[in-house]
Inverse folding.
């Protein structure tokens, strides 16, 4: 394999990244390109974030697994490259996957792409800071997938403990729609096919599935550009679970491939790639491309709606920055938390990240009609209705960080993630209420 691939860590150390445009409390790569979060977990108090990574250029390429660690989910330490595309079964890329800690050992599951997409296993070595690939990879060759067509879409394994064994879900496509393949194992190396579950709301290949238990119910997350969805079941789908609710997970255009993990204190925490395929990345000229959302805590309400909020560590950090004020804004970062009362005003116009020179911005128009708040987002002069919320009072929480805008509505039942790569001198937040 290429000597250049083996020299990835040395290249990262030598590369220069212009930090002037980097966000303050959102994770970005040390250099090069980053997309999907992978292998999220916590071990002995340390949070681990792996991610899809091309260290050599701020664009998609042969894919590595980058790695970072944190003790507080706010400040991150870049670590060595964890996985390199240096085997015949993954020479195109070590694509997305997950991590599982068992008996004080961390196992990494990923899709080895060699034109064929096959599921692979590695064990992370804490002392060396790299992962050792399983000698018998791939652990699930594509030939073991018992479908007759669309085998070229078979990727992004998520592995969890379930009862007295392990479950793996991967994304795929059948008959033009997204599907999730289920496998089970007792030893993490030998896997049996369990079944296929269709997601007809996903047109095309389904990517980066997630599966977890939350508040006594089971949640499945499925990704496709501009259509990241969640499904809530009363029990595990392969055990005959009944769907209780489904909806989009985020109503913005810059949110993709979310993955979650169970923290040691029991919280379910999720991160996502704050971009989507086909969207321009304005930081590429600065030597890097890609941003993660802030870590978000997940819960379910009594109506089976997924509630998504910034994690408490991020909120504590923002509170310290605010110095006790109820909402604040600095030169490039800001935090706003308030209630919009539509019994007094029927319309609110909110503008964020407004470029002082071009006046380009992200604009939200909120209109109250017949007991429902309609939320519109404007980009480049075009408005789209992002979501609706019932009621006459609407909770609003906005996190602003250089070019990042994360908006949480209705106590976290609706989220909108957007990006605006402005010129660097911007007005963070403006609000106008109308009768």
């Amino acid at each position: 394999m290429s000597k250049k691939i083996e020299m990835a860590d040395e290249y990262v150390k030598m590369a220069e990244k212009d930090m002037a445009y980097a966000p303050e409390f959102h994770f970005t790569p040390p250099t090069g390109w980053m997309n999907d979060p992978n292998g999220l977990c916590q071990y002995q108090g340390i949070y681990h974030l792996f991610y899809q990574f091309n260290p050599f250029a701020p664009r998609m390429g042969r894919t590595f697994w980058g790695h970072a660690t944190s003790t507080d989910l706010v400040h991150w330490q870049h670590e060595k490259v964890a996985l390199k595309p240096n085997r015949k079964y993954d020479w195109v890329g070590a694509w997305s996957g997950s991590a599982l800690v068992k008996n004080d050992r961390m196992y990494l599951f990923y899709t080895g792409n060699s034109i064929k997409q096959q599921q692979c296993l590695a064990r992370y070595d804490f002392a060396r800071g790299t992962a050792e690939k399983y000698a018998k990879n791939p652990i699930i060759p594509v030939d073991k997938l018992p479908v007759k067509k669309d085998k070229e879409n078979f990727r992004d394994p998520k592995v969890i403990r379930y009862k007295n064994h392990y479950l793996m879900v991967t994304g795929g496509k059948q008959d033009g729609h997204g599907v999730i393949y289920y496998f089970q194992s007792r030893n993490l190396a030998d896997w049996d096919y369990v079944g296929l579950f269709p997601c007809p709301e996903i047109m095309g290949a389904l990517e980066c599935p997630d599966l977890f238990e939350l508040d006594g119910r089971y949640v499945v997350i499925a990704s496709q550009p501009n259509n990241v969805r969640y499904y809530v079941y009363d029990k595990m789908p392969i055990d005959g679970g009944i769907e209780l609710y489904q909806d989009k997970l985020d109503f913005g255009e810059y949110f993709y491939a979310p993955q979650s993990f169970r923290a040691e204190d029991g919280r379910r925490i999720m991160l996502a790639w704050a971009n989507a395929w086909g969207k321009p990345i304005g930081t590429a000229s600065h030597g890097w491309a890609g941003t993660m959302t802030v870590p978000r805590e997940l819960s379910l309400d009594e109506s089976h709606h997924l509630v998504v909020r910034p994690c408490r560590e991020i909120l504590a950090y923002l509170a310290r920055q605010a110095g006790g004020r109820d909402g604040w804004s600095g030169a490039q970062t800001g935090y706003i938390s308030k209630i919009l009362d539509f019994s007094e005003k029927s319309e609110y116009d909110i503008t964020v990240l407004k470029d002082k020179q071009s006046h380009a911005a992200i604009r939200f128009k909120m209109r109250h009609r017949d007991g429902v708040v309609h939320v519109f987002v404007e980009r480049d002069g075009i408005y789209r209705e992002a979501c609706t919320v019932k009621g006459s009072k609407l909770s609003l929480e906005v996190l602003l960080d250089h070019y990042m805008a994360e908006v949480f509505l209705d106590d976290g039942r609706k989220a909108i993630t957007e990006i605006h790569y402005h010129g660097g001198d911007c007005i963070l937040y403006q609000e106008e209420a109308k009768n």
